[in-house]
Amino acid sequence: MKTTTVSRWRRLAAACAAAVAIGAAGPALAQFPAAQAGAKAAPAAVTPQAAKPKPAEPTTATPQAAKPQPKPAKPQPAKATPAKATPAKPKKPKKPPKIFVSADGGGGFASAGFTSEAAYSLYGENATIVATFPDASGAAVAVRGAVRVWRRLALGASVTGFWSTPPAKVTASLPHPFYFNRPRRVEGAASGLGRDETMIAIEGSWMVRLNARTDVQVFGGPAFFSVRAGVPATVQFTESYPFDAAAFTGVETARVSGSAAGFTVGGDVSYMFTRSIGVGGHVRFSRAAASLTPPGGQATTVDLGGVQAGGGLRVRF
Amino acid sequence: MLSHPRHRRWLLVLVVACLATPGRPLAQSPRGARAVAAVSTADIRDMDAEVTRQERTGALVLRSREADSLIDGRSVARFDQFYRGVRVVGGELVRQEANGQTISVFGAVYPGIALDAAPVLGADDAAAVVAGLTGVRLPAGRAPELVVLPLDTGGFALTWRARIMTPDDLVVYFIDARSGAVVLQYSNLETAIGTGKGVYEDAKKVSTTQRNGTYLAQDAMRPAGISTYDMKGNRTRLEQILNGQVKPADSDYAADSDNDWTDPAAVDAHAYAGWTYDYWYARFNRQGLDNRNRAMLSFVHPVKREDYASQPASVINLYYLNAFYAGDGVMVYGEGLPPSVSYGGYKWTYFSGALDVVGHELAHGITDYSSNLIYRNESGALNEAFSDIMGAGVEFYYQPVGSGYLKADYLLGEDLMSPIGGFRSMANPAAFGDPDHYSKRYTGTSDNGGVHTNSGIANHAFYLAVEGGVNRTSGLSVTGVGAANRDKIEKVFFRAFTQMLPSNATFSLARAATLQAARDLYGSNSDVERSVTQAWTAVGVQ
């Protein structure tokens, strides 16, 4: 009997770990007690209600309830017959958990591209570099925490991070070493220019229960974004006499940063294995417009956020 | 059989006679010389065979063979005439070759030389004579050369040739190898007397080298290596450098502490030298003065402006109101005059401030390393004309067409003077007293036989071939190729003057060579050939 109980715990732990590992879980919403849902499959060790019909054996679990019954001649319901038992009290519905925490891994999709224009001094004139970053995808993580404040309304905060390394198309105008106003145009691609976004949001959420283990939240609120992006600062190139042309070989990058206020909205689906542990997934859309100023260049507006989705662990108290 | 000296002498006579036979004789030849312009198949066949034979006898010695910079697969071979092992000044043949076949032969050889080729005086004796005349000793490595000199009066002299930089001139001496007398001397200063005022405030890039925290006017980006030196008015040191007695030191470089240059004379000398190199490369695929990227050295501030009042006229004429190519890739730019001083009705600025002047002087370097046109009489006038053509060419390549400062035109040196003037016109040579027709050529002895005067004839031919028009003397009309095709005429003249002309070329040879160049580059009966033909005819050169 004891062995069976331990085995179930192990299976649960393994399932949670796997969910986190693959990033497939999402933030949990309100979880209602298993007893309230009348779930017979709840493990005895964690469902004390199941032991109440047998007050004479308060310290003993009822393995039969968890085991297949090889002999129908001993139907379990007979044990539940309150012949001499204390009359069953009406079961009070358990209150939804007070605190909700979720930790998700996932990705951002179609993060808005942008164009950076940098300039630097070369051969007595300004060299200009235009880097065009396409819409890009990348990895994202999100951590949310909320406190239920009224019925199914919760208030909380979330922090998300998004990383991408989109390849940039680079076009540069390089001055001639001997003559003014005779620039050489070079083109190339630059990779590995990382873009990191961090969003901190204040969120309100509303929970909707779908069944005993599954629920849905919708959430939204104001958000504060910060972004750091690698942009080309200078162009590496080769040239030779008469220097009427140059060949692009790469870029040297600079990190530029900016911040902006915006918003975020989204939804979350959770499936709880227990009252406190589950997995879930979320989708959110966020948006803000930040200004980035590459070295020596013009400020450019970058749309932050976009669509992000992920899944992970749900913990509730 | 031919080992006996008498036999060899007869053979040489026969050789020279044969050399003079093939090819179309030209009406205007150096005195005593037989000019050759072999372009027809028959003439080429005969001349080619003769050249081959005379190479075996030593009467002709291959001096150089260079790849044609404009036409792939072609090369130019230069032969010097020798008499009993002694080079004959001006005796040269230039053979254009393609895949082992001769395309053309131009040149001039001297038949009938008869003198004892054994000198009485040695090279050291000749050097001592030169030192006695100039007060300057020839540097080591520049020993006089024994040569046979054709005399203007006819006949020949065995002489020692020496070139030396004196305090006020670059002189070529021919010292009689028997008596030590000076047979001939002439200035080898290839000057461009200009007028102008100031160096203009136009921004230029200066290719420099940083050394020990200081920027030096040393262009290491161009293959030739272009350096500009600031002599800070130390004329004595400049002359030592020009004579090879000392080498320029790092401290002689024009320098600036922050690479934001404030010396306009150095900026223009350095930048324009680079521009000129680039022009040659882009237009003619020419790699510098000698086509081997020989270093180009410019010297500015050879004297101090404030000292001009105490200087003799020779120094003012050489180092204040002049620029010259001093040989071996060295340019010297005059200082001009203080802004408050006028000369000839003009105020004069730094001579490096005029792009056409820089282009002109550097083109003398190309001539030095190619045709080496002797700087006197007709060959000297052609030497000057080629430099004028190159000076105008570089101006049109970089500057907008127009009149005024920093504009491309057919005036030479106009940017040096205030009010704007110039000292030669290719469009109308007569405007500056120069001939626009061969019949008006100067035949005196001053100015090395009028090298700066008679250049107007070839200059005007170039102008007419490009722009078209009517020659004021002959009244003949020329249909030019048009300004949009100026580069074609530039290439024709460049090709002819650098790859076909011998050192003692005449106007007539220049005509023949340019026509051959036109046919080489643009085909027979092309518009270019027609324009060049009409142009030479209009200026009276046949």
What this model shows, in words?
The complex is a heterodimer of chains A (317) and B (542). Chain A has a domain at 99-316: Beta Barrel (Porin). Chain A is 10% helix and 55% strand. Chain A is mainly β. The radius of gyration of chain A is 29 Å and the shape is elongated. In chain A, a hairpin with a 4-residue loop joins strand 10 (246-272) and strand 11. Chain A has an eight-stranded antiparallel β-barrel with strand order 1-4-5-8-9-10-11-12. Chain A has a four-stranded antiparallel beta sheet with strand order 2-3-6-7, with no helix packed on it. Chain A has helices spanning 2-22, 34-37, 63-66, 77-80; strands spanning 99-111, 114-122, 125-133, 136-150, 153-164, 168-174, 184-190, 195-209, 214-239, 246-272, 277-292, 300-316. Chain B has 542 residues and is α+β, with helices and mostly antiparallel strands. Chain B has four domains: 5-109, Roll (Nuclear Transport Factor 2, Chain: A), CATH 3.10.450; 123-188, Roll (Nuclear Transport Factor 2, Chain: A); 209-365, Elastase, domain 1 (Roll), CATH 3.10.170; 426-538, Neutral Protease, domain 2 (Orthogonal Bundle), CATH 1.10.390.10. Helix content of chain B is 33%, strand content 23%. Chain B has 13 helices and 25 strands. Chain B has helices at 5-20, 41-57, 123-134, 235-242, 264-284, 313-320, 355-368, 377-398, 446-450, 455-467, 486-499, 507-522, 527-538, and strands at residues 34-38, 60-67, 74-83, 86-98, 101-109, 145-150, 156-166, 169-176, 182-187, 190-191, 209-211, 214-216, 218-219, 226-230, 255-256, 296-300, 323-327, 330-333, 342-343, 346-348, 411-412, 417-418, 424-425, 469-470, 477-478. In chain B, the strands form six sheets. In chain B, strands 1, 2, 3, 4, 5, 6, 7, 8 and 9 form a nine-stranded mixed beta sheet that branches. In chain B, strand 7 and strand 8 (169-176) form a beta hairpin. In chain B, helix 5 (264-284) packs across helix 7, helix 8 packs parallel to helix 10 (455-467) and helix 10 runs antiparallel to helix 13. The radius of gyration of chain B is 23 Å and the shape is globular. In chain B, 55% of the residues are buried. Mean pLDDT of chain B is 88; it is low at 1-27 and 190-198.
